[in-house]
Write a structure and sequence with these properties.
Distance between the termini: 29 Å
Largest sheet: none
Oligomer: single chain
Helix content: over 70%
Structural class: mainly alpha
Shape: globular
Strand content: under 5%
Length: 198
Amino acid sequence: MATPDQEEKEVPRDKLFYIIYVAIFGVLWGVGTSILANALPPDLISRGIIITWFEVIILFLTKIVVRRPLSVTWALLIASTISIMTFSFGPPNPYKPLLFLAGFAFDAGTRFRTSSLRLLDLAFGFAAYLLVIYPVFFFIIYLTEPAAIKPVLYGLPIHAAIYIGEAVLFAPILWRLFGSDRAPSGVRSIQRQIGAIE
């Protein structure tokens, strides 16, 4: 039988499940983008379309499924830490974990909503994410390869357009499949386990 002191030290089950699920999404995000970045040809357009397609899906699914105030923040911190030595989120760079700021911007854009999350909140979250991730990305590049800033800037409009286009395409689909009241029972079970819904 556990003593009162042991009970106080135990992590509540909902927090434990939250840590597990946000870690799963973070690892999928980091490993998935790293594999794609290393496997795809150097063509910027093809890479942009395929990698951002994966990122957009993981980004929205993290928030839709793991409905906690900072789920995207922690998932992106894990993903960007995994990608330090890969070409995911740009060339290998020790400063990539700073990208968690974009994750925080996304969570803040959704007003940290959980059970009351709506599709419009995801739209605001994504807009805030874009406003932060590009400045942070350029700052990270500047810290290690200042000369690379100019070529990357040339590709910014195309990359941003791809990002926005895929978000507009996938957000409603993912919300309809996993965010509405008709979400699969597995998703609802995860949300109950982490205390996001009753």
